[in-house]
Amino acid sequence: MTRVVLGTMRTSGNFNGLMVVDRDTDSSSGILHAAMADPGIHGFDTAPIYARGLAESDLGRWCPDAPVWTKVGVDVSTPLPTLDYSLPTMTRTLDASCERLRRPSVECVFVHNPPMDVFQGLDWRELKEALVDRGAADQLGVSVLDPSEIALVAEVDTPLTVMVETQILESSPHLAGRLHDAGHRLVLRSLFAGGRGIRSVPTKERADAVTSRLVGLVERFDPWAVVMAPRTPAQLADYAPAVARLRQAVGQR
C-alpha cells in the first residue's frame, strides 16, 4: 500500500532565509482543508524550516487530528536558522514542533538532509531511543540528497523511513531495491523536480500527466509513501485523479 502525503514546504508562505514572504492564510487553509477532505490523502509532511514554523502552526490550527511528519536537524529558534544535529537540540526542536502542531507526538520524525560527515556519525539506536521510544514520534526516518548516503542507509540495522529525491532513484534504480531488502520504508519526494517537470505541461493536460507520473513511480519503485507538493487548491485538483487511482488500486489488492 502506497500512502499519499501532502508536502507543506510552500503552503504557508516561502521562507527565504531571512523572512517569510507570500504568506496567504486563506490559501493555506484552503489547501489543507481540501487535502483533509480527500480520502486518498493520508496526512502531511512538514518541517520547522517551512515558513519558519508557520507551516507547522497552520497544521496545528486547521488539521489537529491528521497524521503529520516533521523533521529535525535545523534549529529555527536562533536569529537565523542553524543546522544542528546534536541529540539535545534535535530532541528540543522536535518538542517545539509538537507544540506548534498541537499534539504530543508525530507519526514520523526525519533527520533532515544530514551532510555526509554528520550522517556517518549518527547513532540511529540512540536517536530512536531519544525521539521515538520516549513517545514524541511513532517512527524514525531520514531524508537524503546524495546517492552515496542511500547506500549508507541500506547498512543501518535500525529500520528507518527513508525520504529520497525521485530523480536520484531514477538515475540509480538499484538503490530502491537495497532499501527494500534492508527493511527500510521508501518515501519518494520531489516528484516533479520542484515543479519544473509539471509547469511546462499545458493546463488541460496536467491532471493526466500527474496521474501517469505517480502511477508509474509507484509501479516501478513500490514506495511506502509519496509526497506530493501542490501549493494551491487549484494545483491540488490536478492531483485528485492520481490520488483516486492509487486509492482504487489499494482497494483492489
From TrEMBL:
Pfam family, any one: Aldo_ket_red
Domain of life assignment: Bacteria
Ranges for domain NADP-dependent oxidoreductase come to 4-195
What is the name attached to this protein's record?
Aldo/keto reductase
Q: Which organism is it from?
A: Streptomyces coerulescens
- What phylogenetic lineage does the species belong to? Bacteria, Bacillati, Actinomycetota, Actinomycetes, Kitasatosporales
